[in-house]
Amino acid sequence: MLMGLPPFWAETHSEMYGRVLDAPLEFPEDMDPVTSDFIAGLLRRDPAERLGTGVDGPITIRSHPYFDSLQWTDVYYRRIKPPYVPNLKSETDFSHFDKDFLAMTPRLSPSTMQQTQSATMDPSLLDLAFQGYSYTNTDSNYMEDAFPSPSATTSDLQHSSIYYYEDDDYGSVEAATSDDRHNDSGVTTSSSGGGGLEPGSNASHVYGN
Known about the structure:
By secondary structure, the chain is mainly alpha-helical. It contains ten helices and four strands. The strands form two sheets. It has a two-stranded antiparallel sheet. Strands 3-4 form a two-stranded antiparallel ribbon. The longest helix is centred in the first third of the chain and has 10 residues, at 13-22.
């Protein structure tokens, strides 16, 4: 977005894929060194060395000098005004789009075509992809409850259906309920540490047969 081209751009897709695997990462001479360092960190080929990897990954990204002028609290609560807000005359105002793109012939992408086919498919056939699984989440408010609004208090977060904690045994972040209870899958979860499945629970309820 900064330069108008992907970092490993090439004339053909196959050449570009080859450059992603083997070519050195190059930046324009006039690019700010802090910006180039940030991008280079995100594009390291070894995932273990990539900026943002590990338990403290989000912190290392937010603390990079590239974001020194940014107040993350303001970002979270959407207090920052965008540097440019287009003046739209209507919802179908395309005056801010590049004319070259507007001149292109629209084509359905594979994912869009699949969605169109799914919409006309017998609903019973869609369930075939989940054969062998015994659990279906039917709670339409599940995602809304899992991610409360920015104004939610700490107490609200702890009483939502999902919050995150650090597992001391495995050094990973897992989903857990705010109190010991059985969820719809029949698996007991606990906020007292350890996470995962408790003895006596049936793993096939979660992972399938």
